[in-house]
Structure formats: C-alpha cells, structure tokens
Amino acid sequence: MNELHMRKSETSSGSDDEIKQEEVAETSSGSDDEIKQEEVAETSSGSDDEIKQEEVAETSSGSDDEIKQEEVAETSSGSDDEIKQEEVAETFNAEAMAVCEDSLANQGGQTPPTEHAREQGNIDLEGNIDLEGNIDLEGNIVLEGNIDLEGNIDLEGNIDLEGNIVLEGNIDLEGNIDLEGNIVLEGNIDLEGNIDLEGNIVLEGNIDLEGNIDLEGNIDLEGNIDLEGNIVLEGNIDLEGNIVLEGNINLEGNIYLEGNIDLEGNIDLEGNIDLEGNIDLEGNIDLEGNIDLEGNIDLEGNIDLEGNIDLEGNIDLEGNIDLEGNIDLEGNIDLEGNIDLEGNIDLEGNIDLERTRRRPIFSYSLKSLKTK
Q: How far apart (Å, rounded) are the C-alpha atoms in residues 348 and 331?
C-alpha cells in the first residue's frame, strides 16, 4: 500500500488508468491485444495470413499461381502455348524453310507457306499470298492483289500484279508476268519471256514461252501453247489443243481450238478461227473474217481474208489465197499458186493448182465454179 501511495504521489501511476497507460506504454504485454500486436510487429508468424505473406514474399513457392509465374518467367516450358511460341521462334525455318537474303516487305496480309518458300529477291505486297506450295524467287513479286497457290512459282524474273493468280500448278519464270487481271492455273506456265495481261488466262494445260503474250482478253486452255514468238490479243483464245509458235498471233478476235496451230509465221486476226483441226504455217494468215475448220490448213504462203473459209477438208498452200468472199470446203485445195477471190468457192471435191498468171480468167472461172 505504501508503494502505491508513493507511485501515486510521485508519478501518479497508482490509478487504474495510469496502470493501464503504463502497461500500454512500458510493456503492454499482459493483454491479448498486445500479444497480437507483438506477434504482428515482431514475428507475425503465428497466423495463417502471415504464413501466406512470408511464402509470397520470400519463396512464393507454395501457391499454384506462383508456380505458374515462375515457370513462365524462368523456363516457360510447362505450358502448351509457350512450347508453340518457342517452336515458331526457333524452329520456323526448319518447318517452313523460309530464307530471305534481301528483303521481304509486306504491307498487307501474308499467309506463311506451309511447305517451302525461298526468296533471294523481294516480295512487296498490298494483298495476300496463300500458299500450300512453294515460291522460289531470285526476282521480285509485286502484288496489289492475291496469289493463291497449291503449287509452285519458281522465279528468276518478276510478277507484277494488280489482280490474282490462283494456282494448283506451277509457274516457272525467267521473265516477267505483268497482270491487271487473273491467271487461274491447274497446269504450268514456263516462261523465259513475258506475259502482259489486262485480262485472264485460265489454264488446265501448259504455256511454254520464250516470247511474249500480251493480252487484254482471255486465254482459256486445256491444252498447250508453246511459243518462241508473241501472241498479242485483245480477244480470246480458247484451246483444248495446242498452239506451237515461232511467230506471232495478233488478235482482236477469237481463236477457238480443239486442234493445233503450228506456226513459224503470223496469224493476224480481227475475226475468228474456229478449229477442230490443224493450221500449220510457215507463212501468214491475215483475217478480218473467220476460218472454221474441222480439217487442216498447211501453208508456206499466205491467206488474206476479209471473208470466211469453212473447211471440213484441207488447204495445202505454197502460195496465197486472197479472199473477200468465202471458201466452203469438204474437200481439199492444193496450191502452189494463188487464188484471188471476191466470190465464193463451194467444194465437195478438190482443186489442184500448179500456178497461173492469168488472174482475171482464173478468178472468173473460180467464182462460177460450184461442184456439189
């Protein structure tokens, strides 16, 4: 009791409030709250929350989320997405075999090839290239359109497109293809020359060129065109046969073929040639009219027409036929000379001529000749 009076008089600590204040200020160790505060301030190791905080702050290895974070940050090898990202970043060249030695500038959408793509040149795109095949380049492909491939394009030259090339076949080029139209292929185009198109080429066959095809029209092929010369078209060539050229075909009209045209000369057309047969030329056929054939025309000379030749037979020429009229044949005309007509020849038989210099008499007799 004396001690309590002394503490009250000197330090005023004998009251219950002062005792509580001293207990809080000096030790504050007798209450449950202080025990909790000391546990939180000093060790904070007796609660479940602190155990979790220590595990997150120090090791962070006890939770599933932290295990995932450590796997992504350190190894990133436990998830399927990371395996795919590493395979794309590290082994894409082994998968796609994509080798670019110059530059690959893509301004549009490009679907990467799934088999093989090898570039030593440039591909400038504002369009799309969808590939299941291969593009091998030492040249350039400049596109504002689309190339859809299940086949191959092998280039040492250039393809400039504002249109589309849809391929299930192959284009092998040492030259150029300039397109504002479309090339749809299930066959092959082998070029050492050029194809300039504002129209369309639809192929199930082949075009082998060392020359040029300039088109504002269409070429529809199930056959072949072999060229060392030129085909200049503002019209159409529809083929189920073959055109083999060392010369030129200049068209503003159409050539429809189920047969063949073999040329070392020229065919200049503003009309049409419809063939189920063959035209073999070392000379020229100049037409403003039509030639309809189920037979053959073999020429070392020229046929100049403003009219029509309808044939189920053959015309063999080493000379010339100049027509403003028509020749309708189910037979043959074999010539080493010339036929100049303003009229018609209708034949079921044959005309065999060596040559005549009497053109007025010759021309008059042929205009009146009709054998049926």
A: 5
Residue 27 CB partners (closer than 8 Å, separation 6+): none
Query: What percent of the chain is predicted at pLDDT more than 90?
Result: 0
Total Cβ atoms within 10 A of residue 247: 20
**Mean pLDDT of the region 170-183:** 69
Neighbours of 272 (CB within 10 A): 19
Q: Indicate the pTM of the whole model.
A: 0.47
Position 5: which residue type? H
Q: Hunting for tokens 């007799």 — which residue is that?
A: 365
Q: What are phi and psi of 18, to 5 degrees?
A: -70, -35
**What's the one-letter identity of residue 320?**
N
Residue 74 pLDDT = 43
Which residues are registered as beta bridge partners of 217? none
Q: Residue 114's pLDDT band (boundaries 50, 70, 90)? A: very low
Q: Which residues pair with 321 in a beta bridge?
A: 303, 339
Beta bridge partners of 158: 140, 176
Q: 112-132: string of b/e by CB count within 10 Å (b at 16+)?
A: ebeebbbbebbbbbebbbbbe
pLDDT at 310: 72
Least confident among 103-112, 129-138, 224-233, 240-249:
103-112
DSSP 348: S
DSSP 369: -
C-alpha distances (whole Å) from 230 to each of 205, 282, 288, 305 are 18, 15, 19, 21
Cα separation, 143 vs 27, in Å, equals: 84
